[in-house]
Specification:
InterPro entries: TPR-like_helical_dom_sf (IPR011990), TPR_2 (IPR013105), TPR_rpt (IPR019734)
Number of strands: 0
Low-confidence stretches: 1-5
Keywords: Repeat, TPR repeat
Largest sheet: none
Number of domains: 2
Number of helices: 7
Structural class: mainly alpha
Strand content: under 5%
Mean pLDDT: 93
Order of helices and strands: HHHHHHH
């Protein structure tokens, strides 16, 4: 009888398919479905920063703020110059009622990448 649990039958190609499907689920506003697929990818490839960033976005979209915060933090430990991750972590802190932490990361995002959205959120002029 074939093994159907765990990683049996899972290949690198299967994980790529799961990652791409998770992107589609998130775009289709099914963040919980995306998280479920990404759990398998990250279990197999815990160092995969792209998968962690996508899972952080999915957690945020599902209003699971603490897991989103943890994933964005892991991404930033690996890529401290990732402006998007700083911005997204700031939004997470903002939603969870931590304005000081949010402003710190909004400003880091804007300093790393002066996009209008990042600059507006950083409120350097105030």
């Amino acid at each position: 009888m074939p093994e159907t649990s765990g990683f049996a039958g899972r290949t690198p190609e299967t994980h790529v398919i799961d990652f791409r499907a998770a992107e589609q689920l998130l775009a289709a506003r099914d963040p919980r479905g995306a998280v479920k697929l990404l759990d398998n990818v990250i279990a197999a490839y815990p160092e995969n920063t792209a998968a962690r960033l996508l899972r952080a976005r999915a957690f945020f979209a599902a209003a699971q703020l603490r897991p989103a915060e943890l994933e964005f933090t892991i991404v930033l430990e690996r890529e401290p110059d990732n402006a998007f991750a700083h911005f997204a972590l700031a939004r997470t802190y903002e939603r969870s009622g931590q304005p000081g932490q949010a402003m710190r990361h909004f400003r880091l995002a804007a300093a790393l990448d002066p996009q209008p959205e990042y600059l507006a959120a950083a409120r350097f002029d105030s």
